[in-house]
């Protein structure tokens, strides 16, 4: 099929978002997302419930994506899906659906690394970063600094050795009684608080790596001790606590990013992943960019969280490179770059 007529259906099901998108010759036509609200009752994503919801949502989501783009399934050039990383049960739903549909239509199958797709979300709309650039990918499950040399040439040069920064945000929110998802709620309260009111311990890691387990424990002990002194401490100081936590976490992220920028002499800087929607991170990044002379790139909000548009963008470049997989492919929860 001519390159100008490449039409790809992309499916994302790595966690609790069932999403489908259509891309035509490198242009994303839509981005259909079905969000699972059931997890709010449990303070976090329940894997079994997530996989069941994906099974319920995937057919109507794919159908809506095709109809919205006015494309018949028989016009598709390939089908792409998130192979990993993610939750095993959730990934299996998307992978099985994509494999079955590709087999039935006798068209190529494309596997996508979820974290690489977050980075390639920068190429959905303008402005697009120039190579090479550094991308800080931050989410509930990952924290990485990636050297991006080309669409399909990426190298992780720094990452968390324990917990992800998104998990630290969510854990903090849970300790503060804010519920799930916690990151956006901490961000909202932080905007009204004094970020210098309280301090929390940071774990120093060698090179460009991170560690967030220590600060999570520090926050736990801090709140425990303060509540012994005053049982209303959290409610009376919520905004300042959130602001102080956020300042610490964001500071840890940007300190290593600045170090990476100086070491690699790269001033094109991008951020991606769900935590990149955090307003505190965006504000601090803008301030550091001005001091360091960076050019910063951040995708639109809908492309920061888990979505199929970014899977579609990655699939487009893999299609052009002829990188396809066979029916023997399976979900890979701990998929690496």
Task: Report what the structure shows.
With 337 residues, this protein is α/β, with parallel strands linked by helices. It folds into two domains: 3-120 and 304-320, Nucleotidyltransferase, domain 5; 129-298, Nucleotidyltransferase, domain 5 (2-Layer Sandwich). 42% of the residues lie in helices and 18% in strands. The protein has helices at residues 47-68, 88-105, 114-120, 165-175, 182-190, 213-229, 233-264, 279-292, 308-320; strands at 7-12, 17-24, 27-28, 32-35, 78-84, 109-113, 133-138, 143-150, 153-159, 268-272, 295-297. The strands form two sheets. Strands 1, 2, 3, 4, 5 and 6 form a six-stranded mixed beta sheet that branches. Strand 2 and strand 3 form a beta hairpin.
Question: Summary?
Answer:
It contains 9 helices and 11 strands. The chain has 337 residues and is an alpha/beta fold. Helix 4 (165-175) runs antiparallel to helix 7 and helix 7 runs parallel beside helix 8 (279-292).
As for the number of domains, it is: 2
* Rg measurement, Å: 20 Å
Note poorly predicted spans: none
Number of strands: 11
CATH top level of the largest domain is Alpha Beta
Q: Oligomeric form of this entry?
A: single chain
- Number of helical stretches of at least 4 residues: 9
Helix vs. strand class: alpha/beta
Largest sheet: 6 strands, mixed
Helix content: 40-55%
